[in-house]
Specification:
The protein has seven helices and eight strands, in the order βαββαβββαβαβααα. With about 270 residues, it is α+β, with helices and mostly antiparallel strands. An eight-stranded mixed beta sheet has the order 2-3-4-5-6-8-1-7.
Length: about 270
């Protein structure tokens, strides 16, 4: 089992990020869906009385999704896994500013595979040493990785870099923020940090190290690419309300169902 904590600093308030993150998830889902693959939303509904994060949060929004990912997993897994078994099921409890996401593959790997992502969003510069209230034993296993969204050369591939989502050159017309240059993490206002604790569990003889290492190679890439987009799309989502977001999610859910049935495979690949 590998435990890593990814810290992503953003020039946003914690309140702004709630809207920006949800809007960007919907937008990014469309970019990853087509040709029989992509995101299928099964549930998106409120939940109550489900204590999370040491009982501090109990209410929020529950989502249940299936990621049809055949072309996005390591080639070795594609060779050994039966056709149709490479779908990942995602359950997420978003009790903002805390969110827990659990990824499984019950059709094939069953309890041999699980990824848990716990995120707490705080108004700081990534300096909280133990944002997740981990025990001394857990802290001893944890590795902290800082993700700088303005760095084009860390974690990303050439295909991930697009001129319209480069924080080092982007300037927001609505907010006046950006471009993010120099020592921006120490100087920007407003500021917040996403503390993402990722635990990868894969118990399959001969493949455990490969899959756990592959996952942790992909997560900083995914977190960097996604949060670059959240910031550079700010003029598209800034000022929207949560009611606006729920309406957008309903519309996108219908669009994803249609897109998955046609077109070509899209988005990030391994």
């Amino acid at each position: 089992m590998i435990i890593k904590e990814y810290r992503v600093v953003l020039p946003l308030t914690v309140e702004e990020y709630q809207v920006g993150q949800l809007w960007s998830v919907a937008e990014a889902s469309k970019a990853e869906t087509g040709g029989g693959e992509g995101v299928e939303v099964l549930k998106n509904e409120p939940f109550e009385d489900s204590p999370l994060f040491h009982g501090k949060y109990a209410n929020g929004q529950y989502t249940y999704k299936v990621y049809h990912l055949a072309s996005k997993v390591p080639a070795l897994l594609r060779k050994v896994a039966p056709k149709g078994s490479l779908s990942i099921y995602e359950e997420a409890w978003n009790a903002y500013p805390y969110c827990r996401t659990v990824l499984t593959n019950p059709d094939y790997m069953k309890d041999a595979f699980c990824v848990k992502i716990e995120t707490i969003h705080l108004p700081d510069r990534g300096t909280t040493e133990n944002a997740h209230n981990l025990s001394p034993a857990e802290l001893a296993k944890r590795e902290v990785i800082h993700v700088n969204i303005a760095n084009d050369h860390e974690f990303l591939t050439h295909a991930d870099i697009h001129q319209d989502t480069r924080p080092s050159t982007f300037h927001s017309q609505k907010t006046g923020r950006g471009p993010l240059t120099g020592n921006w993490i120490s100087n920007c206002q407003p500021v917040m940090c996403c503390y993402k604790l990722v635990t990868v569990h894969f118990k399959w003889f001969g493949l455990q190290h490969l899959v756990e290492s592959y996952a942790h190679k992909q997560y900083p890439r995914l977190f960097s690419k996604f949060h670059r987009e959240v910031f550079c799309w700010i003029d598209k989502w800034h000022g929207l309300t949560m009611q606006d977001i729920r309406e957008i999610e309903d519309r996108v859910q219908r669009e994803l169902n249609e897109a998955r049935q046609k077109g070509q495979v899209r988005g990030m690949t391994g």
